[in-house]
Specification:
Layout: H1 3-31, E1 37-41, H2 82-89, H3 134-152, H4 155-164, E2 166-170, H5 173-180, H6 188-191, H7 194-214, E3 219-223, H8 232-238, H9 247-270, E4 275-279, H10 281-284, E5 292-296, E6 319-321, H11 329-340, E7 348-349, H12 353-358, H13 361-366
Parallel strand pairs: 1-2, 2-3, 3-4, 5-6
Antiparallel strand pairs: 4-7
Helix pairs in contact: 2-11, 3-4, 7-9
The structure holds 2-acetamido-2-deoxy-beta-D-glucopyranose (2 copies).
Subcellular location: Secreted
Pfam families: Lipase_GDSL
Protein name: GDSL-LIKE LIPASE/ACYLHYDROLASE-RELATED
């Protein structure tokens, strides 16, 4: 074969490969609204990252997963978590796999770094054992980004790819439940007022969200705190003194959320090629129409997680809570649908996940 012929053959191969790749890419784009979804969070999003840690905050046993296709996986739920349902809505054919056990091939469509008992602060949740705090989740993501650069081949294409992904971050619940409101284990409530502690927490969170931006995130949904004072555990542990819920814990949620919303504004102002949105789980959980909203469906052991030996309630779609902390699959569907497609201006700010993923951020970034 002459030099020219060989070169032409090579060009043909390259062209054919390019056509296959672009066709594949085109198909993927039609099916899925984003090419990738990266998840940061606590037990509301954990899908198995804690299974091999030494911790009381793991649930890889029945009746967890009783309504899930894959049985008990480490999800703190009878079925799907909020982020599972968001992934379904976005058109992913598989749930986003946990970082702990992910394969090299999984990286391109995103990973889930969430860990039960984890917090914004590193010490949060330590009374339960090992966990992966948000700082460590971000370092794990940094490892993922390095691998992506190797797979994709160059920094610029990787940056463009990462800018098209959806990112969701839901943190802060444990910094209250498994830190500030446990004075027997943590000094935080002796050292700080609720306002001071919340200020520190939100400042640190803001830095962490900036770090996520530094690793290439451009479409970021931040989940606010739900009504921490309305979990069956809070009601049972602290009492409600005539209210429906534990007032001081709901105050903590509201305080945190009211500080977080301006942070979202400021990040959008400072980082103009990114978009952050805030999801108001507190408000969304208000009028939910569920029959039972103050007791969990399964019979819990001490610590508020389901007892492995006991059967759960049969009518799980009527319950908000699965165990003493975590929502049922049915309630997660309600939360995920309102996050994706807001029913009113307060659900999502400045707009919902549907609008976030439709932004042409990647194209803007490549100019
Ligand atoms: C909760 O917040 C309300 C409104 O700001 C306040 O009046 C009340 O004293 C707070 N309650 C507790 C227990 O902190
Ligand atoms: C759910 O099932 C339990 C057990 O059968 C029953 O006692 C309860 O009333 C049911 N709850 C609702 C809201 O229907």
């Amino acid at each position: 074969m002459t030099m020219v012929a060989r070169e032409m053959k090579l060009q043909w191969i390259v062209l054919a490969l390019f056509m296959v790749l672009s066709k594949w890419h085109h198909c993927a784009a039609v099916d899925q609204l984003v090419p990738c979804y990266f998840i940061f969070g606590d037990s509301l999003a954990d899908n198995g990252n804690n299974n091999n840690l030494q911790t009381l905050a793991k649930v890889d046993y029945a009746p967890y997963g009783v309504d899930f296709r894959y049985g008990p996986t480490g999800r703190f739920c009878n079925g799907r978590t909020i982020v599972d349902i968001i992934a379904e809505i976005l058109g992913f054919h598989n749930y986003i796999p946990p970082f702990a056990t992910a394969q090299e091939a999984d990286i391109l469509s995103g990973l889930n770094y969430a860990s039960g008992a984890a917090g914004i602060r590193d010490e949060t949740g330590q009374e339960l054992g090992q966990r992966i705090p948000l700082n460590k989740q971000l370092r794990n993501h940094q490892i993922t980004v390095s691998r992506l650069i190797e797979i994709i081949g160059n920094d610029e294409s990787t940056a463009l790819y990462l800018s098209k992904c959806l990112y969701s971050v839901g943190m802060g619940s444990n910094d209250y439940i498994n830190n500030y409101f446990l004075p027997q284990y943590y000094p935080s409530s002796h050292e700080y007022t609720l306002e001071q502690f919340t200020g520190l927490l939100v400042d640190q969170y803001k830095q962490q969200l900036r770090t996520l931006y530094d690793y290439g995130a451009r479409k970021i949904a931040v989940f606010g705190l739900g009504q921490l004072g309305c979990t069956p555990d809070a009601i049972q542990t602290y009492g409600t003194h005539g209210s429906a819920c534990v007032v001081i814990m709901n105050n903590a949620s509201q305080l945190f959320n009211s500080r977080l919303k301006p942070v979202v504004d400021q990040l959008n102002e400072d980082l103009t090629d990114a978009k952050f949105i805030y999801i108001d789980f507190y408000g969304i959980s208000g009028d939910n129409g569920f029959e039972v909203d103050n007791i969990g469906c399964c019979q819990v052991a001490e610590g508020g997680l389901c007892n492995p030996d006991k059967p759960p309630c049969p009518n799980r779609t009527e319950y908000v809570f699965w165990d003493s902390f975590h929502p049922t699959d049915a309630y997660n569907v309600f939360l995920a649908e309102r996050s994706y497609s807001a029913s009113n201006d307060l659900d999502a700010y400045p707009f919902d996940i549907r609008n976030l993923v439709s932004l042409n951020q990647g194209v803007a970034a490549s100019k």
